[in-house]
Write a structure and sequence with these properties.
The structure holds two protein chains of two kinds. Chain A is mainly α. Chain B is mostly helical. Chain B has a single domain, classed as MetI-like (MetI-like fold). Chain B contains eight helices and no strands.
Chain lengths: 214, 224
Amino acid sequence: MEQYLPLYQKAAVLTIRLGILGIVFSILIGLICSFVLYYQIPIIKRIVAIYIEISRNTPLLVQLFFIYYGLPKIGIPTNAEICGIAGLSFLGGSYMTEAFRSGLEAVDKVQLESAESLGMNRFQTMRYVILPQAVSISIPAFMANVIFLLKETSVFSAISLMDLMFTAKDLIGLYYKTTESLFLLVVFYLIILLPISIIGSLLERRVRYAGFGD
Amino acid sequence: MPDLGIEVLLKGNNLMRLLAGLGVALKISLIAIGLSIPLGILIGMLVNGKNPIIKGIYRVYLEFIRIMPQLVLLFLVYFGTTRAFGWDLSGETASVFVFTLWGTAEMSDLVRGALISIPKHQYESSAALGLNRSQTYFYVIIPQTVRRLLPLSINLITRMIKTTSLILMIGVVEVLKVAQQIIEANRMSSPNAAFGIYLTVFFLYFIACWPISRLAAYLEKKWR
């Protein structure tokens, strides 16, 4: 089994790298979209709402097929890695938006009024009053999304990215090493996902003070 | 106007074939949902008890199913169990099995969460009113649980439908596979078919899932 380890390590690095990049872009998209929704910016908020509905109601695999095989036909060149990151961010953006938005909206309106009466401007209110509470409220949903997105990277093998799934399928197809390759597959996913899941539940416990205000 | 390959849809019975492919995906997810909702409710209620062994086994099952990507689970069952136990499993049976396993885990966790979220004083007040155990459940606990549960389980249905797109990877002929076949068959006559066909598949999934998630959002708002 040892001779396959380097293959899996390489694949795991690819999975993690694309996953992290996708998640970073998802966070960016999520931040922008949740602020658009929170401040009710006209017209753009419509576009964001449509984007969320489309992205949440279609599978990542179908999104990837469209981006990877469909878009080049109308002259938009794609390479597999960029396409994977784009697909993951397209999907993750809407999930992150929902997580952040629920955090922002959970902050009571009374607090905004109090902040205003203390003479804070809009930026200060956001920075010192809303964000600290919103962040801790959205942490559980945020961590769940991170795990969800890392799991979703498993479909990258469909657009010929050599991730963990691809490697496992390759070994099964080439050498019939079914048991070994599936075992390593499970082990490697556990190595990637288990620490994040544990960090998630620890963080969730730590940030629970957000609820003390009521 | 560039050639977008939409016209391939109208050739022969291509559109009908795509819809039939979507039908396969929907059929598998509906069977799995039909099985996992009752099973999930049963298991969710069972683990709400006090038996530590049942709780321990359940924890491991839940964590493993939830942490593994569904595609890995599909591979484990489709390639792994067939190899280990020597049985012959069709891709469709394997997918129904995996989605039931997964759906049951998710559903039981929702049920458990909903049961825990009912405050203790609801049980105590019913006892004070002289309701017995089954009356407490029927008139007090279950109506409240259902309200919390229904939007979440409807969401689970859309997640299940979306996840069925993965069964392509274990060789089930569903909507994406049909799309690939149509694109291959029309490679010469319309080289751009990939754009139009995959866009159609994209919207077919959207049309299948969107009304369901709207319903969940509506119920959630109404019953909050």
